[in-house]
Task: structure prediction
Amino acid sequence: MKYTLLFVIMLFVSLRGNSQDLESILEQESSDTTHLVFATFNGTRLLNGHSVETRKEGILEFMISHRFGRVNSGFDQLFGLDESNIRFGFEYAFADKLTIALGRSSFEKTFDTYAKYRLAQQKTGKNPFPLSITLFGSATAETIKDYLPENKPSFSERITYTGQVLLAHKMNPNLSLQVMPTFVHFNTVPFDNDPHDMFALGIGTRIKISKRVSLNGEYYYNINPFESVDVKNSLALGIDIETGGHIFQLVFTNAVSMIEKGFISETTGGFFNGDIHFGFNISRAFQIKKTK
Result:
């Protein structure tokens, strides 16, 4: 009996020692290596706005976005489905960190272009860094002819600029958070007392509920909105569905515009009053240049 007890004690001590060795090895390997954190979000869009994600070099992405009319417009408008606003755009990754894009929206017949640059990526291990940081800048030009012939605006007067810093942290494989400080400059404003320079702060999240499905949320607080327009803060809730090379997003939002200056600065619908636009984003990626 005493030999059996002695054997058990020796086995416990041996296993304990091996366990400590394994833990030490794992800790050492982890601390000696720096790991980049990938897939903070499923795609380049959170919902209305951009995520920190950029495409790999040589990828051309074609994106189509729809926003229907307000669901509280009633049966006569088939709860908004009779009205459709569309944006389509091409987005090309000249490098892993740099994307240039061109798009066109039917809402106000607006052309937009943007550049997106990944400044830093979240890391764990030896040299950890807590955030992924992406810079975003866009310019838009409205071409809708909503003016009298004698008051025709110049091209410059129809230009608006937007700048954002996208800051994101992947808490764990199922939860990501993002903050979006935003600056919008209007060359022309509705009335003289409206600000040309507008500031906003956005927050967003992704909650992954399965391998290919996640719930997303996005909210922008407009710090100094137009005084002549009853501007509402933009809110969007949605579902991401990943299907191979496609990212399909179902969106419910009080904003009809799908570009930054529109949904951040010019949203007039109240989400909790039922002024909700159903819509979707769908993208398709093409590898048109082989990487080295």
